[in-house]
Specification:
5 helices, DNA-binding, homodimer, about 110 residues, about 55% helix, Arc Repressor Mutant, subunit A
DNA sequence: TGAACGTATGAACAGATATTCATGTATTGT
DNA sequence: ACAATACATGAATATCTGTTCATACGTTCA
């Protein structure tokens, strides 16, 4: 059996990249946003729907969604007077899965 | 080609788990901690060494290391008057890799 | 056109967080 | 025993962050 190799960062991490990484994880560092993103994992949702699911006011949800949009974690699609939000890519859920492994594995 | 399936959370996310997830990501949401953890990825380091590498005071590093210890992201090994820190498991670097994919992929 | 609806936005406030500074504790060397 | 070293800790402070509240904007319906 081969030795289990590390993920191997191999290279140095410059300040800018460290900040970008931190910013990304920062978007996932709040329970409300985690629940919003999780709710989006099952498909598009509009703001009111999200607000109801996560138990927040629409305003609070809207504020958080803006942040998620800016970090390209969620994207918006306008339809009439509603705005449907969706995950922008699969990375978020992958991060959640990894995170859950750590949390559950204590 | 088969349809690319989602990571599929499948189940609901209770508040406690959402908070735990958020707490984990919160530990990775600061540039200083990111750099500390990254420095640890190449092996054990003592506090002074870390402080020098990331350009922080030993006190500041020590404060952050406590947090990382409490969240089981880093562990300490005392040797004489030095304390060597190391990553507590591989999950962190896996999360960093995924995070970098997102950051670099825009 | 006017009212109702869905969402966004800005200001304000409360709570969280990172760093600094001063000090404390344990260990080593003389 | 004393001084120096390595690290930890608590308090204080400045900054950041999430929510609320009031309000504004765009859309639909009557």
């Amino acid at each position: 059996m081969a030795t289990r190799s590390r993920p191997a960062p191999s290279t140095a991490l410059d300040d800018a990249t460290a900040s970008q990484l931190a910013q990304l994880f920062s978007a996932l560092s709040d329970p409300s946003r985690v629940r919003i993103l999780w709710a989006l994992s099952s498909g598009e949702r509009n703001v009111g729907d999200l607000a109801q699911r996560v138990g927040m006011t629409e305003s609070a949800v809207s504020h958080q969604l803006r942040q998620l949009r800016q970090l390209r974690l969620a994207r918006a699609r306008k339809a009439g007077r509603e705005v449907f939000y969706a995950l922008d890519d699969e990375h978020v859920m992958e991060l959640f899965q990894r995170g859950l492994e750590h949390v559950r594995h204590r």
